Every structure is written in C-alpha cells, then in structure tokens.
Amino acid sequence: MSLSDAQRTWQLSANAAAARLARYHHRGWLRRVRRGLYLVLPLEADPRGAVTVEDPWLLARELFAPCYIGGWSAAEHWELTEQIFRSVFVVSAANVRNRVVHLLGVDFRVAHTSKEHVARAEAVWRGHEQVMVSGRELTLADALANPAWMGGLRHLAEVLWAYRESSHWQPKKLLERMKQRESGAGFKRLGWLAERLFPEERALVAACMEKKTAGLVALDPAVKVPGRIAKRWGLRVNVDVGPKRRSE
C-alpha cells in the first residue's frame, strides 16, 4: 500500500494518511518496504518474522513505476524459455539509483528506459491486479538491442527460435517493434540470427539488412573476446550460435 493508496482508500490528507500508516506499522499490521510504501501483512503473520512477497511483479509495479516486466522475466511469462532466473527483470522510466535491488527476499534487475517506451508494454492480469509486461515482440526487440536483458546472446537465440516455432510468430510485428526501438545493432543481430536459425525467412533478413547501421558492433557486448568479423552484417561474432533444425 502506497501513501496515495491510503489517502484514496481512507479519504484522508497526506499527513493524516501517513500518520495512520505509521501507526499500523508500529502495531505490526504493516511492513514498511521503503518510504511511503507498505506491505499489508496477513493476520496470521508474525510481525517480527521474515516477510515474503506472494507476487514479486506487484511489488515491482509499486517500486519502479512507471515500469514493465521485461527481459528474461517476460520470456518466462510468454513461455519462450524453460530457463529459470532467480531475479525479476524490470524496465523502468523512474530514476532508480541501483540496477540490482534486493527487497523482501526478491532480487530485481532494473534497466532504464523512457516513459514513451514503457507505454509500449501491455497489461496482464495477476490475480485481481494488472501489471505491465512487454509483449513477445517487444521482449525480443529489447533483447536484440541489449542481449544482457535476456541473459546473453545464446539464450536470446533460444528465445528467438522458440518464438519462430510458436503459433504466435509475427515477423511484421517484430519488425515494427524493432523500428520503434531504433537500434541498428539490434537489426544486425536479428538479421544474422535469422540467417543462421531460419534462412527461409528471406523478407525478414532483407528488412534487417535495409535497417542495419554502419560501424562494427559485438554480437554479445558482454563477452570479452574479439571473435571473427561478419562483414555482411558489421558484426564481431564473439559467441557461437549454431543453426537449428526442425527435428530438434
């Protein structure tokens, strides 16, 4: 519960609502998460014991607003990966000082973006609450621009392959999200990966070739090895991603 929630629910001024929140916190009915944000404890909970969060996405929504759940967490949500990550990936337009945040037993990995970009996410239901999450195409566009958001290029390739093989494959929509992302490096990575993973998608490869920018970028910026240069795409191929086959 935030201060604004308390004001609205109790129809009190900011000072009166803050005083009531502080009083309930002192009585052990609320747990203070940070200034102005409290967690309502179950009646059976020990106010002195450790507190866990039932749904970390709801906590992220309050902590980092305006934001959306993205990266590997969104890939898990859309069933594009079987890999399990310990932390929740959040893309936020807020002024967040730390990129790694640990609260109430939850690890959050936070990346910064603009409010305009946050608005491109979509709402999903989590019980009776709505949380913003990047759609399949936005999740991939984000990761193609920043492979670290997906835990690295190799995992990104697996997620892209899973998306291509799913019933949700929409290359035109993916390209639309890529254009909104305005990342020439992202187009380079997508074009190179498409040629390796599903070369039959010629229109997609051609669109990426048209949108790629000049200069040389690393396939995976987090990998500190030189790698060979793919002149066609202006990429330094510093990780190995083999072609997949339908039978795999």
Task: Please give a quick description of this structure.
The protein has 248 residues and is of the alpha+beta class. It has helices spanning 3-10, 14-26, 56-63, 71-77, 115-118, 136-145, 153-165, 171-181, 184-197, 202-211, and strands spanning 30-34, 37-40, 67-69, 88-92, 100-103, 106-112, 122-126, 129-133, 217-218, 228-230, 235-237. It folds into three domains: 1-51, no CATH class; 52-134, no CATH class; 164-237, no CATH class.
> Strands across the major sheet, in which order?
3-4-6-5
User: Which residues form runs of ≥5 with pLDDT under 50?
Assistant: none
What is the oligomeric state here? Answer: single chain
First-to-last CA distance: 47 Å
Class derived from helix and strand content: alpha+beta
* Rg from Cα: 21 Å
Which shape, going by the Cα principal axes? Answer: elongated
How many domains?
Answer: 3
List the helices and strands in order: HHEEHEHEEEHEEHHHHHEEE
The major pleated sheet works out as:
4 strands, mixed
Content of β-strand = 15-25%
Q: Give the overall average pLDDT.
A: 88
Number of strand segments: 11
Helix content, binned percent: 25-40%
DSSP helical segment count = 10
